[in-house]
Amino acid sequence: MARILIVEDNPDNMELMVYLIQTFGHTVLEAENGEKGLEIVEQAIPDLILCDIQMPSIDGYEFLRRLKLDAKLVAVPVVAVTAYAMVGDRDKVLNMGFNGYIPKPINPETFVKEIESFLNSESDKE
After folding, report:
1. What angle do CA 94, 97, 101 make, to 5 degrees?
2. Which residues, listed in sequence order, are joined to residue 80 by a DSSP beta bridge?
3. Is the pTM of this model over 0.85?
4. For burial by CB atoms within 10 Å, which of 11, 29, 37, 68 has the most?
């Protein structure tokens, strides 16, 4: 099973994602902001990172930029899980370097399968 870091400042969203991911047997690391997320990846490299875009202090784009400066983290897939769902937001997220985009509110019935597809696609490359 995978180790998945969630970087999310909304406690309700965090709780739902943690519950769903753990139900499918994955290990979850939790960060309530981008700084904490960067601290966690220094301690333990996750198999996948789910990251909100709109957060206080450093947003998801800055989190991703800093993360990708570390050579040992470049290969870790990062998926934006965001309320940015206007026309063009998905393209912007992907153009900024995220590996994927999942709009909020998440669909509890399909969420884990969606994120597992990023795990599978990464392991297929090895």
Report:
1. 40
2. 51, 101
3. yes
4. 37
Six-digit token string for 85: 């769902």
Nearest in space to 125 (alpha carbons), one of 60, 62, 75, 70:
75
Residue pLDDT, tens place only, 61-114: 999 999 999 999 999 999 999 988 777 899 999 999 999 999 999 999 999 999
The residue among 13, 24, 73 whose CA lies nearest residue 47 is: 73
- Roughly what angle, to the nearest 10 degrees, separates helices 111-125 and 11-23? 60
How far is the C-alpha of 6 from the C-alpha of 42, rounded, in Å?
15
Query: Residue 110 corresponds to which tokens in the numbers above?
Result: 């399909």
More confident residue, 9 or 126: 9
* C-beta neighbour count of 91 within 10 angstroms: 10
What are 4-27's pLDDT values in tens digits? 999 999 999 999 999 999 999 999
| Domain residue ranges of the chain, discontinuous segments joined by + | 3-116
According to CATH, the topology of domain 3-116 is Rossmann fold (3.40.50)
Q: Terminal CA-to-CA distance of the chain, rounded, Å?
A: 16
